[in-house]
Amino acid sequence: MEKEPLIELRGVSKAFGGYPILDEIDLTIYRGEALVIIGPSGTGKSTILRLVAGLLPVDAGEVYIKGKRRKGIIEDGHQPMRIALVFQQAALFDSLTVDENVGFFLYEHSKLPRNRIRELVEAKLAMVGLQGMSDRYPSQLSGGMRKRVSFARALIANPDNPLDDPEIVLYDEPTAGLDPISSTVIEDLVRRLQNASGGCDTYVMVSHQDSTIRRTADRVIFLYGGKIQWEGKVDEIDNTTNPIVRQFFSASVKGPIRMID
């Protein structure tokens, strides 16, 4: 069965302050896959997520969403599908409760009754293991719990609008700053949400964490020097002869990856 491409980057380049970050990148993201983008810090991994999400314009090249070329950024027009982004920092409103954070868009922009939105929020919180937390504030939660709240917010949708369900979730370093046990909880949750009713079967993740890469990826791409240097299945990581990949996973300071002191 042929895989369905959801998003395509064709010859995409991006620079900041005249410094090139991405150089004519070609990347296809397929429905139902778990893709993890890896590489050293500052190589444009999070930039790819923001280009896919439509938060940044490309400098050159084209972005296709379900076969249709995107013009401009997400604010410039109708998008053929919803793309959810989970930021590295949970990015919750400290003055709002968990319920108000997760249901924020529906409370502000839908015509759903408040009690119905509350039910939807409770259902998403249950999916991420945070039942009974609706009335707490972010300051009352651990870092891992705040991450899970941001997952629930990314997945909540208006049931009256079938186009509101996200068809892809973008995770920007979801286990950064977490202890090993909390990281395991998040890794398990990402996989569980991929297969759960009301979740999302396609995701792209950026990560530096070895365990997160190995436990959440089906396909891996390695970004360095503005280019995709390697691509393969997660179980091919330990067998590849690619010197960049071998250096990265061995944490060696010797190799083709240049370190800035």
From TrEMBL:
Top-rank lineage group of the source organism: Bacteria
UniProt-listed Pfam families: ABC_tran (PF00005)
Keywords associated with the record: ATP-binding, Nucleotide-binding, Transport
Acyltransferase found in the keyword field: no
Molecular-function annotations in GO: ATP binding; ATP hydrolysis activity
The keyword tRNA-binding is assigned to this record: no
CDD domains, sorted: ABC_Org_Solvent_Resistant (cd03261)
Domain ABC transporter, first and last residues per copy: 7-250
Protein name: ABC transporter
Organism: Crocosphaera watsonii WH 8501
Lineage: Bacteria, Bacillati, Cyanobacteriota, Cyanophyceae, Oscillatoriophycideae
